[in-house]
């Protein structure tokens, strides 16, 4: 068995595609009726589809999981994030952990938690 994708729920597929492309360089692999597969295996699904099949409400900022990315030039990334998405909600701005890793945590446009850290 092999894990193929990670799916997150979004309200606006077009805005989410732009966000993940602008910040992380992810490109569309397949765009099909409210489901979009991006490079690196991230899948965006329209909230209406999720609600229909799950029969439950989506809970943004539920802090039950996070997407983790690594970036060597994290200061540049933090600057790009601030410049392109000044309205973003931060959990923590750029910090350095006791073990030396620099990280930044924030929510995407739909309340999905993201962490970007320097390679360990």
UniProtKB/TrEMBL annotation:
Domain of life: Bacteria
Gene3D superfamilies for this protein: 2,3-Dihydroxybiphenyl 1,2-Dioxygenase, domain 1
InterPro entries: Glyas_Bleomycin-R_OHBP_Dase, Glyoxalase-like_dom, VOC_core
Domain VOC intervals: 2-119
Protein name, UniProt field: Glyoxalase
Species this chain originates from: Blautia faecicola
């Amino acid at each position: 068995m092999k894990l193929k994708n990670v799916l997150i729920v979004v309200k606006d597929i077009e805005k989410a595609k732009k966000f993940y492309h602008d910040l992380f360089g992810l490109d569309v692999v397949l765009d099909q009726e409210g489901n979009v597969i991006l490079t690196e295996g991230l899948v965006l699904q329209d909230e209406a589809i999720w609600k229909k099949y799950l029969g439950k409400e989506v809970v943004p900022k539920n802090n039950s999981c996070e997407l983790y990315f690594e970036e060597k030039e994290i200061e540049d990334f933090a600057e790009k994030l601030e410049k392109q998405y000044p309205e973003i909600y931060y959990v923590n701005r750029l910090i350095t952990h006791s073990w030396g890793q620099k990280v930044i945590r924030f929510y995407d446009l739909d309340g999905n938690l993201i962490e970007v850290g320097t390679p360990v």
